[in-house]
């Protein structure tokens, strides 16, 4: 599990509890605490405690061949994907282990594919989960915490990854992670981006959680506007989301727990924001298509300005 933070830490703990062997990567105080005291996850009142090997990326490379692993899961922030992939590049290039991303955004899988080739990439997303590191070595998580995964960029009829995806679906689900395989993961990633562009930047700007935003008389219109602009942007990737996706995603996030988004957590901790991979991804595509995106442009500009 590359980047065992809020999301990676939760899923790693579930898999370990079910008997799977895991190795975690992290850095700083969190890494020190994982080594000294193990990983503790508070999931809706259930406490999961797991002692798992934890390393920096340079230690990982020194200790293991990449093909020691059946699967490498990337649960970093999108801001770190390129740098970490470059760091792991030689280690991964000479191997054949498949790589699953469970990050937000639609540009992580292409970045991973640049290093290892599309055939080794599984796209994925963490759905209906809120999670973050509360203290070094400690993670809080809530929600149904599903995973949707699939062959990147989409499954071919004779795709050799189908067998592995079936194995993962069964193993993850048996471990308590409701998992489904999609034959069009790019479509699923775009649907998730509709939610993330709708609520993440605005939550970081206002300090409000997802429920407060989607039930607020004015902010809900901005959320809806940013979601609609994401639907429009999807056409640049030939994904063609439609009004039914917009309605479904707005409904999903309005009726989900009151989540402090990952971007709000990052803002509060003074960490880099996944703004470029969320709002930036939408704005670049809208520009290419010649489509206006005034909500996303405004929120993106205000948030960028508040950071400087
Ligand atoms: N949190 C949430 O509720 C949700 C998040 N997501 C998505 O899941 C992904 C992961 O998010 P989340 O778990 O919140 O992120 P976190 O920041 O909690 O976890 C990422 C982990 O990776 C570590 N890391 C980052 N860069 C490096 C590096 N160069 N070397 C070693 N370790 C590194 C981080 O360390 P450090 O803390 O020092 O940066 C951190 O421990 C994101 O794409 C996010 O958008 C999806 C659904 C919900
Ligand atoms: C909005 C939310 C919680 C939806 O799962 C999310 O993906 C995030 O916080 O990044």
From TrEMBL:
Q: In which pathway does it act?
A: Cofactor biosynthesis; (R)-pantothenate biosynthesis; (R)-pantoate from 3-methyl-2-oxobutanoate: step 2/2
Where in this chain does the record put each Ketopantoate reductase N-terminal domain?
Answer: 2-153
| GO molecular function, a single term | 2-dehydropantoate 2-reductase activity
SUPFAM superfamilies the UniProt entry points to: 6-phosphogluconate dehydrogenase C-terminal domain-like (SSF48179), NAD(P)-binding Rossmann-fold domains (SSF51735)
Task: Give UniProt keywords alphabetically.
Answer: NADP, Oxidoreductase, Pantothenate biosynthesis
Q: Which GO terms describe its biological process?
A: pantothenate biosynthetic process
GTP-binding as a keyword? no
What's the Enzyme Commission number for this chain?
A: 1.1.1.169
Task: Show the catalytic activity.
Answer: (R)-pantoate + NADP(+) = 2-dehydropantoate + NADPH + H(+)
**Superkingdom per UniProt:** Bacteria
Q: Which Pfam families match?
A: ApbA (PF02558), ApbA_C (PF08546)
Task: State the family named in the UniProt similarity comment for this chain.
Answer: Belongs to the ketopantoate reductase family.
**What does this gene product do?**
Catalyzes the NADPH-dependent reduction of ketopantoate into pantoic acid.
Q: Which protein are we looking at?
A: 2-dehydropantoate 2-reductase
Source organism (scientific name) = Marinobacter maroccanus
């Amino acid at each position: 599990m590359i980047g065992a933070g809020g999301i990676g830490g939760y899923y790693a703990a579930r898999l370990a509890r079910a008997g799977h062997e895991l190795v975690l990567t992290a850095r700083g105080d969190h890494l020190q605490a994982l080594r000294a005291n193990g990983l503790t996850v508070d999931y809706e009142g259930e406490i999961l405690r797991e002692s798992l090997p934890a390393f920096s990326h340079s230690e990982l490379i020194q200790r293991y061949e990449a093909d020691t692993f059946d699967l490498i899961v990337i649960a970093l922030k999108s801001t770190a994907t390129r740098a970490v992939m470059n760091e792991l590049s030689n280690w991964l290039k000479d191997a054949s282990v498949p790589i699953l991303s469970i990050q937000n955004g639609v540009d992580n899988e292409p970045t991973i594919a640049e290093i290892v080739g599309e055939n080794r990439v599984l796209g994925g997303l963490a759905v209906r989960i809120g999670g973050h590191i509360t203290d070094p070595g400690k993670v809080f998580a809530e929600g149904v915490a599903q995973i949707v995964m699939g062959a990147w960029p989409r499954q071919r009829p004779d795709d050799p990854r189908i067998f592995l995806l079936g194995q993962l679906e069964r193993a993850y689900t048996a471990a308590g992670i409701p998992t489904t395989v999609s034959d069009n993961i790019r479509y699923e990633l775009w649907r998730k981006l509709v939610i993330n562009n709708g609520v993440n930047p605005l939550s970081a700007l206002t300090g409000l959680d997802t429920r407060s935003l989607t039930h607020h008389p004015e902010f809900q219109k901005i959320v809806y506007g940013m979601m609609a602009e994401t639907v429009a942007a999807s056409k640049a990737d030939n994904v063609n989301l439609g009004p039914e996706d917009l309605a479904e995603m707005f409904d999903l996030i309005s009726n989900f727990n009151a989540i402090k988004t990952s971007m709000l957590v990052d803002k509060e901790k003074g960490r880099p924001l996944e703004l470029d991979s969320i709002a930036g991804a939408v704005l670049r595509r809208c520009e290419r298509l010649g489509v206006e995106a005034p909500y996303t442009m405004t929120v993106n500009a205000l948030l960028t300005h508040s950071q400087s």
